[in-house]
Each structure stands twice: as structure tokens, then as C-alpha cells.
Design brief:
CATH class: Mainly Beta
Largest sheet: 2 strands, antiparallel
CATH architecture: Beta Barrel
Number of strands: 4
CATH topology: Barwin-like endoglucanases
Structural class: mainly beta
Number of helices: 1
Strand content: 25-35%
Length: about 90
């Protein structure tokens, strides 16, 4: 049986030089080897339209070989008001 490793990062904070406050603050992540993750932020023209507590829909796209695409199954995650996962399918 192969050993599975989990990567854990706790308390991540990112502040850009000269910024008044962090863009990420005390983030915790855990994922398996080979997992593809991203932290997505609103930028460009839409950034000024988004306000704290707004609900947003995030859609991602990717490229993969045709054989992998045939077997791909997307994950849809629904969050509650506190950004805690309430359902994933």
C-alpha cells in the first residue's frame, strides 16, 4: 500500500510591500500530493464593484489531455454564510 502524504500550511499571511493591510490573513490549507490549488482574487474592473459580504460565483477553466478530460468530474462546492463548506459534489 502506498503511503499518502498530506501537505499542511497554517497561519499564512501575505501583505504586498507598501500595502496598509494583508491580502491574506491567517489562512490554513491542507491538501494531498498532486492536488492543484489556487487562491483567486477579484481584480481589474470588477474589483471596485465587489464589496465585503457580497456573494460571488467562481468558475475555473483548465486544459488537459483529451483522455483525462473524458474522465474528469468537476467539484462543486457550496459555502455557508461563514465560508464553511456545507456541500460538495
Amino acid at each position: 500500500m502506498a503511503v499518502q502524504y498530506s501537505y499542511v500550511m497554517k497561519g499564512l499571511t501575505k501583505t504586498f510591500p507598501g500595502a496598509p493591510k494583508p491580502i491574506l490573513n491567517n489562512i490554513h490549507l491542507q491538501f494531498q500530493s498532486g492536488t492543484k490549488i489556487a487562491i483567486i482574487g477579484v481584480n481589474g474592473a470588477a474589483a471596485r464593484l465587489v464589496q465585503k459580504n457580497d456573494k460571488i460565483i467562481v468558475v475555473t477553466y483548465g486544459q488537459m489531455p483529451q483522455e483525462e478530460a473524458r474522465q474528469w468530474s468537476p467539484t462543486v462546492v457550496l459555502l455557508d454564510e461563514g465560508n464553511v463548506v456545507k456541500a460538495a459534489a
